[in-house]
């Protein structure tokens, strides 16, 4: 952060993102494609708030503790501008992106949770979301240096372009399409079973 002008300003100003410092009601009135509106809509859709993240503990150095707190508080902005949900697949994609983007060790360690994925989810993660995360994490500007409070009115597409982040495929839509396909297959099997019995 010290090597980036906005990172230095963030370290100097030490802004916080909480429900006391940011008005979600106001953000909900922002233009549809703004970062602020996307953030508020994402929080609403996922059922979380700016206060959902735990406070940083066990880090003695005040500056390091602030950097970790800032990371936690801005993590949901990364979700919001990519549209990735908090379900485990989306979280793993964000963690892989953050690891390649920031090299924060804890984000890399989080990837061990890939073992919790079902086979179809694991395949989708390795085929689609991990390549997206690696490609974008490596080429994008470091998101830890984004002064999010100053970007709330920015068009989310403009910010993604400036940061060098491609929009990933819509995970919720992919999961929905798979559920619908399985439902159709099940109905076809039941229909064939009924015909055979008749």
Characteristic key phrases:
0% strand; 198 residues; mainly alpha
Mean pLDDT, nearest integer? 93
| Sheet of most strands | none
Q: Spans of 5+ residues with little confidence (pLDDT < 50)?
A: none
Determine Rg (CA atoms, Å): 20 Å
**What is the helix/strand order?**
HHHHHHHHH
Number of helices: 9
Distance between the termini: 71 Å
Number of domains: 1
Q: Into which percentage range does the β-strand content fall?
A: under 5%
Rough shape? elongated
Question: How many beta-strand segments?
Answer: 0
* Helical percentage: 55-70%
General description of the model:
The protein is mainly alpha-helical and 198 residues long. The chain has one domain (5-169). 62% of the residues lie in helices and 0% in strands. The chain is built from nine helices and no strands. α3 (35-46) crosses α4 and α5 packs parallel to α7. The mean pLDDT is 93. Its cofactor is Zn(2+). Pathway: Cofactor biosynthesis; ubiquinone biosynthesis. This is 4-hydroxy-3-methoxy-5-polyprenylbenzoate decarboxylase. It catalyses: a 4-hydroxy-3-methoxy-5-(all-trans-polyprenyl)benzoate + H(+) = a 2-methoxy-6-(all-trans-polyprenyl)phenol + CO2. Lyase that catalyzes the C1-decarboxylation of 4-hydroxy-3-methoxy-5-(all-trans-polyprenyl)benzoic acid into 2-methoxy-6-(all-trans-polyprenyl)phenol during ubiquinone biosynthesis.
